[in-house]
Fold this sequence. Notes:
The chain contains four helices and nine strands; from the N terminus they run H-H-H-H-E-E-E-E-E-E-E-E-E. By secondary structure, the protein is α+β, with helices and mostly antiparallel strands. The chain has a domain at 89-232. A nine-stranded antiparallel beta sheet has the order 1-3-4-9-6-7-8-5-2, with no helix packed on it.
Amino acid sequence: MSRTRDLSKLINGIAADKIVSGTFADARLSSSSVTQHVDLSSIDSDYIQLRQATADLSNLNASNLTSGTIPNARISSGSVTQHVSAVTNTSGSWTPSASNGGFSSVSGRYHKTGNLCMAFAHGKFSSRTSANDSQFFVNGLPFTARNSGDIQGGGLMSFNRQTVGGEMFAVVKANESRVRMYTAGADTFTSNTTSTEYLYSVADAKMLTNRNFRQSSNNDANDNFMFQIYYITA
Length: 234
């Protein structure tokens, strides 16, 4: 017998504890030689728990999220908008009219964001107001003012032959769609008037009347007006 065959017999009968170095090739190890030392039952248990945890994510209680930030892609638009009141924006034209006398060549525009309306207009008188002390109004605001409290807005108005030294003050009262006018310092609920046909002769702290506009409403080429109003709508 050759020495090679004798050495082969020795290796075939060698004890495992004699192997103290080196690494076996994978092909030299049977699968059972590995699995007999692995507790597969614990692996199966962990796998089942992982599968269950993954399924529970679809029913996760939001109160359990105590830190971190959810990516935008994971939040639907409906989840946000259901907590936000929609703000509408509208724009258009409107036509102011005089409570006494008449206007012509009128141009009015408005813009409304939510319940806040901005209205602008200009034009001229085309017919004369009456010689009485009834309060004068500009009618036709594009929306009715909110019905709450007393005053819901105001602004400035400018008429030909107005009070010297400043603008007249416009007031929009609750639940109305018209504009009232007062001079500086007036109580906006006053009925105090001055019986003059000239705006520049009206003293402070007065309510403006039909008579006060008599000389500004002669259909003269210069009988123009313009105003801007801001108010809260219904």
